[in-house]
Structure formats: structure tokens, C-alpha cells
Description:
Elements: H1 2-8, E1 14-21, E2 32-38, E3 43-49, E4 57-61, H2 74-86, E5 93-102, E6 108-116, E7 128-130, E8 137-138
Antiparallel strand pairs: 1-2, 1-5, 2-3, 3-4, 5-6, 6-7, 7-8
Amino acid sequence: QLARARRDWVGDATVTSIEINCTSGRDGACPLRVRMSSASRFASLDASRPAPDSSWTYRQNGSSSRTPPLSLEIVEFERILDALRADGITSELDRAKLEQVQLQNGTTAPRWTIFPRDRQQAGREGRACYEPQSGVRVDCRTGR
């Protein structure tokens, strides 16, 4: 999706968030939403697809992005999946979200938040948070 955005929208597009939400899909279809930003256009692009076999829809927002862009590499998500399994989360996933979050100390950081179908496997909060590059699990509130 990012390669297409760079080709069709703007060459310096960077991903700011991606969300896969299987709880609101029908018959196993998981809506996918990707947000991108561009320094050269001072704009963001919201791309969404309600089901795997459906078309992408795009909406451009003319305001500049207020959060630093995230790097999104498939190898990062593979690390997250490995970390999930190592932590004993074997359930299918309802939702996976990569976003820029503000920590309690005021700084921002990228973070994957994973919502397994069996929420008990993720612990008391029903979700698990991971640092993207290393795949290390962190506290969802503090980032530590």
C-alpha cells in the first residue's frame, strides 16, 4: 500500500498508522485502514478497505501531521508476532494497531497494540503492547 501511495499520491509518503480490525468485519473480512503523511504536500492521506476483496478508498486531509512518521517494515510485524507467541498469546488477533503514542513523561514513541481474540491471554488489560523495532513487550500505559 505504501509503494502505491508513493507512486500515485506523493513520493515521500510515510506511514503514520495502520489498523486491522477483525471485530467489525463480516464473515472473516477484516477492514484495513492506513494513514500516511507527506512533508512535501503538508498533508495526510487516509486509505481504507472494508474487506480483502474490496476497493481502496482515499481521503486527503489538508492539515499537516502533528506526530513523527512511523517506519513500517514487514520484518517489524514478524518480530511482533514472534514476541506474541513467546509471551503465550496463541489466540487469533481481533485487531492490531501501529500508532504514535504519547508516553506519561510527555515524549512520543511508536507502538504496536495487539488485541487477541482470547483477551485473557494478553493479561488484565486484554491487550499487549510492543516496541516495533525490537519486538519487546512494554506496558501499554507507560511504554516501559
